[in-house]
Write a structure and sequence with these properties.
CATH architecture of the largest domain: 3-Layer(aba) Sandwich
Strand content: 15-25%
GO molecular function, one term: carbohydrate binding
Shape: elongated
Strand order of the largest sheet: 2-1-3-4-5-11
Protein name: Monosaccharide ABC transporter substrate-binding protein (CUT2 family)
Largest sheet: 6 strands, parallel
Family: Belongs to the bacterial solute-binding protein 2 family.
Number of strands: 12
GO cellular component, one term: cell envelope
Distance between the termini: 75 Å
Organism: Cohnella phaseoli
Structural class: alpha/beta
Number of helices: 11
Number of domains: 2
Order of helices and strands: HEHEHEHEEHEHEHEHEHEHEEH
Helix content: 40-55%
CATH superfamily of the largest domain: Response regulator
Low-confidence stretches: 1-34
Radius of gyration: 26 Å
CATH topology of the largest domain: Rossmann fold
């Protein structure tokens, strides 16, 4: 009987402790307003939401995939065109007023967006940059391609393909964007020391395929001995490729581009584009959201993450490991 009585007293004690613990937990949750149960609100400000820019569409898919996996409320906003820098600035100021938990930013201009980073910091909102950085120490993380190295990859491939002394043109996009500055730097660091090559200039398409097309046609007329072109983003590469094809110079003027799209794949298959440096925009979007989750949970995140790039040619574009990179739009 004494042993049964002792067991009852022990059970009563355990239940009492459990009741107090549960009551305390409930009270703490009530005092916090159930903040722990609220999903993280993340706003992602990109350079362009245009459906014509497949790079940004794929990056946005990465954002939404991570948001679903981690239970985050994620919203993607941005101007229609990468050159709409003032529009992006106004949008970012509105986002700051809305006070999300974290802001992810792909800056349309390396210098002009820098003061906005300070405004975000003063508002107490963590800032993470993706794809394109800003001239500021404020961001808590940077997730992007190593664009200097990617530019070097494009230049090395073109140098490998060209035979003998050659004139080369660079078709870039938005002049003050960090990504284009770094890619051009990588291209020049490889080609300029090589006595075989003369870079006739860098020309800006403002992210517009038609401008790249007309610019390249004019270059082919002005420099009849032009042997190589480097396109530094998707519209610049496609526009340059169309011009080379329409001028009947395919296979004669060699083109190494950037990124992947339906049009670039077709130009690769046709032999108009010899190679393209493909990035991993899905990973940028996904890791951007994951980093936001980690920082909000008090976990450390890398200051910089290189999402990588790979040179794709007609010879390797259908290899299994390259399928998702080359055909993200399927």
């Amino acid at each position: 009987m004494a042993r049964r009585s002792d067991t009852k007293r022990l059970l009563t004690f355990v239940l009492a402790v459990l009741a107090v613990t549960l009551a305390g937990s409930y009270g703490l949750a009530a005092l916090r307003g159930n903040e722990a149960d609220k999903p993280l609100n993340v706003t992602v400000v990109i350079k362009s939401v245009s459906k014509e820019m497949e790079f940004w569409q794929v990056l946005s898919e990465g954002v939404h995939a991570a948001a679903k996996e981690f239970g985050v409320n994620a919203r993607v906003v941005g101007p229609q065109r990468e050159t709409d820098i003032d529009v992006q600035i106004d949008m970012l100021r509105q986002v700051v007023r809305e006070k999300p938990d974290v802001i992810l930013l792909a800056a349309a201009d390396y210098n002009r967006l820098a003061p906005l980073a300070d405004e975000i910091d003063k508002a107490g909102i963590p800032l993470i940059t993706i794809d394109s950085g800003v001239n500021s120490e404020v961001p808590r993380g940077f997730i992007a391609t190593d664009n200097v190295e990617a530019g070097k990859k494009a230049a090395r491939k073109l140098a490998e393909l060209l035979e003998g002394p050659s004139q080369i043109a660079v078709i870039s996009y938005v002049k003050e964007t960090a990504t284009q500055i770094e890619r051009e730097r990588g291209v020049r660091e490889v080609l300029e020391p090589d006595g075989r090559f003369e870079i006739v200039g860098t020309y800006y398409s403002n992210g517009d395929e038609n401008i790249a097309y007309e610019t390249t046609k004019e270059l082919l007329r002005e420099y009849p001995d032009l042997k190589g072109v480097v396109g530094l983003n998707e519209p610049s590469s496609v526009g340059a490729g169309r011009a080379i094809k329409d001028m009947g110079r395919g296979g004669e003027v060699l083109l190494v581009g950037f990124d992947s799209s339906v049009d670039e794949v077709r130009l690769l298959e046709e032999g108009v584009i010899q190679a393209t440096v493909v990035q991993r925009p899905f990973n940028m979007g996904y890791l951007g959201v994951k980093t936001a989750v980690d920082l909000s949970a008090g976990r450390k995140a890398p200051a910089s993450t290189d999402t990588g790039s790979i040179v794709i040619t007609k010879a390797n574009m259908y290899e299994e490991e390259n399928q998702q990179l080359v055909f993200p739009f399927k």
